[in-house]
Specification:
22 helices, globular, mainly alpha
Length: about 450
């Protein structure tokens, strides 16, 4: 396994293009497939791309703000002291790896947006304080992103009355999907495999360590005697305290009223409120935000490219063609396995769970109904497939890479092997159901 991983790392570092160039290559591939398979003309494909280009503007802004507000929160003295406490528990690379993996996995399970920021920041702090190969621990922090927890949109949607597939499959409660006994066991098994795989990776002969310091994270100090009235206002505690309390009051009111729900917008608001309350001034907050904007540049430029790819995939009929092909080779027992694989493949081109479900979900669930496959198991197979190939899709790694200051090629060699291990575990679960009819 070590030899295979080392080989994978060498190949990826040599041949994998940057995440931006990869998005451009995927655009070309889908453009050509739309003409060859979908039978569309070049101008039609260009129109599909243009129609989809702006579809992720809202989501892209949400992701940018999740990263920015989470990054700024992580730069507060309180959170820094907590991270220092966690890193202080690790005196060896293996201990650092275990703490980072378990912490980030739990955070991803609770909410993938929170896990993305928390895992990246913890990996960076471990890289600063423990002599460890930095790309390896960043890859380990990202490995837990595939977990499907209580914030997974697809199982929550189909458990909600009035969802758009209710006429086909009815209401499927989360006790049959997210909180089924087998899904909980699978989640725990993936955590154990993730820890084992990364903890026992031998560090390369040439270790790349994180060499930056905390100095750049601190806002420059000013002598109060030299401050102008505007400087005093910018370095005052009152403006950020007021805005932070205002946001906190809104959140508390929603919780008391029973109308609070955890989603990207509320996570952004929580991060914003805590960051404002914990930074000592607006100047300190904006200094941290300035660094966060640099970390978010990949999201800002690449999300529209993937929206264009999704537009071409959808309107050219490529998603339907692929889904129907996979359905044609399935039986009631094997359908969840095939669904898992097909969702993973389509996810590489349409890396948005909600968007993919809206396109592919009706096709898959209608087929499940006609074939006689178990709907709850099919839904979870689709959900796991959607998260599985995130491991080799730089789209979702952009926030983490932005915080870590790495490129996709630095971590993808490890994640390709983890993709294979996790795929065997997840796919094998559905294969066992097929073999034993459980």
């Amino acid at each position: 396994m070590e030899a295979i991983t080392n080989f994978s790392v060498r190949v990826v570092q040599r041949w994998l293009p940057s995440a931006f160039v990869l998005a451009l290559l995927l655009t070309v591939i889908v453009f050509v497939l739309g003409m060859v398979v979908g039978g569309e003309g070049p101008m039609a494909m260009a129109g599909f791309w243009g129609d989809g280009f702006a579809k992720l503007f809202n989501f892209g802004m949400q992701m940018t703000l999740v990263l920015l507000t989470g990054y700024v929160l992580a730069m507060t003295p309180f959170v820094q002291s907590m991270l220092t406490g966690l890193t202080g528990l690790a005196s060896t690379p293996k201990q650092a790896m275990a703490i980072t993996i378990v912490t980030s996995f739990v955070c991803y399970y609770l909410n993938w947006g929170f896990g993305m920021v928390a895992g990246a920041i913890l990996a960076r702090e471990m890289g600063r304080r423990v002599h460890i190969h930095f790309p390896l621990i960043v890859a380990a922090a990202y490995g837990g992103e595939l977990v499907r927890g209580p914030s997974s949109s697809i199982p929550l949607v189909i458990a909600t009355p009035g969802h758009f597939l209710e006429a086909q499959i009815g209401i499927v409660p989360v006790t049959q999907t997210l909180y089924s006994w087998w899904n909980i066991l699978l989640t725990l098994a993936l955590l154990a495999l993730l820890v084992i795989f990364f903890m026992f990776q031998k560090q390369p002969a040439k270790i790349e360590v994180l060499t930056d310091t905390d100095d750049d994270d601190k806002a420059p100090e000013m002598d109060r005697a030299d401050m102008s009235p505007s400087d005093r206002l910018e370095h005052s505690r009152l403006p950020t305290l007021f805005l932070g309390l205002l946001a906190a009051a809104f959140i508390i009111d929603k919780i008391v009223a029973g109308t609070f729900s955890v989603n990207l917008n509320t996570i952004i608001l929580i991060f914003l409120s805590l960051g404002l309350l914990m930074h000592k001034s607006s100047a300190a907050y904006l200094h941290a935000a300035e660094k966060a904007v640099g970390a978010a540049r990949g999201i800002i430029i690449q999300f529209p490219l993937y929206a264009g790819i999704a537009g071409m995939m959808t309107n050219s009929g490529l998603v339907t063609e692929f889904s129907n092909m996979m359905i044609s080779i399935s039986t009631p027992a094997t359908f969840p396995v095939v669904t898992f694989l097909s969702a993973g493949i389509v996810n590489f081109f349409i890396p948005s769970g909600g968007g993919q479900w809206a396109i592919q979900g009706p096709i898959v669930m209608q087929a499940a109904y006609e074939i006689g496959a178990d709907p709850a198991r099919t839904i979870m197979a689709f959900t796991w497939g959607d998260g599985w190939t995130n491991q080799i899709q730089p789209f979702w790694a952009l926030p983490l890479l932005g915080v870590a200051g790495l490129s996709a090629r630095d971590i993808m060699g490890y994640l390709i092997i983890w993709l294979g291990i996790s795929g065997v575990a997840i796919g094998g679960t559905f294969v066992l159901f097929a073999l034993f009819g459980a």
